[in-house]
């Protein structure tokens, strides 16, 4: 194993930064490439067939180009639809991000859990299976919130995002049947932890579960015996289309020193 071989993070946009951040906290010297498939954004509005053909093919090309030691699909939409296809197409460990329903069920006193994701994620059988396996005695209220994805992108591009706008995007979940009893909400889209403070202000009684730190621990475990460079290095961000330009300023906070479009 080459100490300079990076970890590759993949999402449709900036959402995967919510997985990158806790990973860097555990593995500060890990070299990384962060890929935002912004040409395909938003994944949540795409069909299963589109995601299942686009994501494994794109990841295959990225792996050939960057030779990562491990790939992280830092996107619930892509993971719940295409994780198996990606794993069988790539000859390296692949970590996915799937809704954190298990820890939510461990916490919920009311036994009513909200799953806030993209429209594509919340309709996946993968979510039915997680609910049946880990939260069989809970009512699961699902809501696809595409506006929240756009708000997270806007926030990272330095635009003003109000609590009011965040509340409006998530409110239908609480207005649905049993929604008024939701005490734990699963952030089932990697963009949403980027709006955690706004969500907490908008819905004060709700505990939000972010799967990011658990994914980071999994990455650290899978790479536990591998060599790393002796010093931290700046990471590289790769876009598949021209990004919004103010975003580049924000990326430095995530240890990203170079951005390119392929
Ligand atoms: N960040 C993504 C997710 O976790 C996808 C957002 C989108 O492109 O719609 O689902």
From TrEMBL:
UniProt EC number: 5.1.1.3
Keyword Membrane: no
Active site residues of this protein: 75 (proton donor/acceptor), 189 (proton donor/acceptor)
UniProt keywords, alphabetically: Cell shape, Cell wall biogenesis/degradation, Isomerase, Peptidoglycan synthesis
Gene Ontology terms, MF aspect: glutamate racemase activity
Pfam family, one: Asp_Glu_race
UniProt cross-references to InterPro entries, sorted A to Z: Asp/Glu/hydantoin_racemase, Asp/Glu_race, Asp/Glu_racemase_AS_1, Glu_race
Involved pathway(s): Cell wall biogenesis; peptidoglycan biosynthesis
Positions contributing to substrate binding: 11-12, 43-44, 76-77, 190-191
Domain of life of the native organism: Bacteria
Catalytic reactions on record: L-glutamate = D-glutamate
HAMAP family linked: Glu_racemase
Role of this protein: Provides the (R)-glutamate required for cell wall biosynthesis.
Family: Belongs to the aspartate/glutamate racemases family.
Descriptive protein name: Glutamate racemase
Organism: Sphingomonas telluris
